[in-house]
Design brief:
Layout (H helix, E strand, L loop, with lengths): L3 H13 L7 H9 L8 H16 L3 E5 L2 E4 L6 H4 L5 E10 L5 E4 L2 E6 L1 H9 L3 E2 L5 E7 L2 E8 L3 E7 L7 H14 L13 E11 L9 E7 L2 E8 L4 E13 H12 L18
Length: 277
């Protein structure tokens, strides 16, 4: 009969070395130490029994005949993966540079000006409901929906759930949008563009959720976090989603630190947007 302490030693060893798989002989040799090691079939048999029991309990997995590996959970991710921080679910907003709404004797009407309609048609926008126009764009495999509102507002939704954006990818999308919307909205000026929604996430290929499909955590009115398995990319996504308002300029500064903190240099007090101590 094996002791609980021996079971704990075997499990602790596998968890500390979760990126590798081991058989009973190797575990026995490692736990006892290489110096003056003598093989003992009874002791190895006990370890095999422990491994079988831990497998049935779901704490480890049998990778192939005779070899075992610790099951990966969130506490072990630091050993296995450090995926990049990616962006998705992005909603941006900016006012138009021109008046779009026609006025009749100084009173706003529910019609676009002739100049606005000519510009929207030139950019291939399509009429939608509630006096809106929209255009779907594709940039490097990602769908971008641009919606123009009669009151003089442009919304941009970047759908990147299946193909999340890195920070450099996001900058390229913004450059593209700045050119496309140049005659309609000052999207190239990041201080006037507002970020309404943005999700930041990491996709872990080696993490599996045991017994649940999704875990959601909501701590604030305008922010929530979720952990779930995405079948289409075969990865467990850990994401944090923020809704609210901040300028694109401030958002990019924050993202620059989050995605590549080693390149961050403290700004002068007059330019600083956050206090670093």
């Amino acid at each position: 009969m094996h002791s609980n302490s021996q079971t704990k030693k075997v499990l602790d060893f596998l968890r500390k070395n979760a990126q590798h798989e081991y058989n009973a002989n190797t575990i026995d040799r490692t736990l006892l130490g290489e110096k003056d090691y003598k093989k003992d079939k009874k002791r190895i048999g006990t370890i095999k029994t422990i491994l079988s029991r831990l497998t049935k309990q779901g704490k480890i997995s049998r990778t192939k005949r005779g070899f075992y590996q610790a099951n990966i959970d969130i506490s072990l991710l630091h050993q296995l993966e450090n995926p990049p921080l990616m962006l998705h679910g992005i909603m941006l907003e900016c006012k138009t540079t021109k008046k779009l709404q026609k006025h009749i004797q100084g009173i706003p009407s529910k019609e676009y000006t002739t100049e606005a309609l000519q510009l929207l048609n030139a950019l291939d926008f399509i009429p939608s409901t509630n006096y809106r126009y929209y255009r779907d764009l594709w940039f490097e495999g990602r769908k971008i929906t641009v919606t123009v509102h009669l009151m003089g507002k442009v919304d941009v939704h970047i759908n990147s759930t299946k193909n999340p954006l890195s920070y450099p990818d996001f900058l390229k999308v913004l450059t593209y949008l700045g050119g496309f919307l140049e005659k309609l909205s000052p999207f190239s000026d990041r201080k006037v563009v507002q970020v309404l929604e943005m999700g930041v996430a990491k996709d872990f290929r080696q993490l599996r959720l045991d017994g649940v499909k999704s875990v959601s955590l909501k701590n604030f009115t305008n922010a929530w976090a979720r952990i779930y398995y995405k079948d289409d990319i075969k990865a467990t996504r850990i994401e944090h989603h923020i809704t609210g308002r901040m300028t694109l300029d401030d958002a990019l500064k924050s993202l620059s630190i989050l995605t590549n903190p080693i390149n961050y240099s403290r700004e002068s007090a007059s330019d600083s947007f956050m206090d670093v101590t």
